[in-house]
Amino acid sequence: MAVRCNLIMKHMEKLAPIGYGQEWDNIGLLVGDPTQEIHRVLLALDATEEVIDEAVAKKVDLIITHHPLLFKRIKSIRKDTPVGQCIYKLIQHHISCYAAHTNLDIAFGGTNEILAQKLGVYDTKVLHPLCSEGEVFGFGRIGRLKEPVTLEQYGNFVRDHLGLTHIQVVGNLQRNIHKVALCSGSGIEFMKDAVASGADVYVTGDIKFHDAQAAQQMDLCLIDASHYGTENIVIPTLAKYLKNWAELESHRVDILASEINGQPFYLLK
Ligand SMILES: [Zn+2]
What is the Å distance from ligand 1's center to 105 Cα? Predict the structure, then answer.
């Protein structure tokens, strides 16, 4: 039997509780009908128009993304605006759209823990806690490598394990790296937490020139593995999570990972 949208939502929320979502964020079912029967799900980092076209072509009923389609406040839904056009297309083709964003980043087993596993970081703790009592949850993770390696070796490892063509590195390439802090997406605001936790290197995306200078002054190495590179790794794990559940509970629903390359940057050499 096909499965209703709200049952998939419930299972997503087991992994990424809605309560972990930040106030400024916009998560959950953003477009669609919670009672809709879902036969096919498409997972992607963003619900771009290209991804929505892919969903239409593949007869998908539900798109689950990391970045929310509706993020900034909108005052109209018009076909002549990029977001309006996406909403139009979704509704015309009866496709629902769900987002798990900061709640998935914070979640145990979510984006940051998947990133830590990919980057060979063990014994992880939360880098930037959001609570002082009870269960400690928050952004980023800090842990250690099994054995120290040089920054150059670790940079190569990060690039290869995230399937990237290139990364940017700040710091002495011969420095020994043992303690690693990381935050998926745009995590430079937590650089001070990385320093305070004694990290040798901080891996994140979207690092600016002055952040790199500040890191040098604080003797912290940086690896910019890109916003896309540090987040897109969540998609195969999410696919596996939903597939296992569907199989276990005998739901007839196909789980697909988007084949669109959502990395907007190209490197010209
Ligand atoms: Zn992001």
Answer: 9
